[in-house]
Amino acid sequence: TELLIDVGLLATIFRYMR
């Protein structure tokens, strides 16, 4: 739930940054 959303958002941002 919250953790999944947090991880998903972080992964998306990281992928965009990289």
From TrEMBL:
This is Uncharacterized protein. It comes from the Eukaryota. The lineage of its organism: Eukaryota, Metazoa, Ecdysozoa, Arthropoda, Hexapoda.
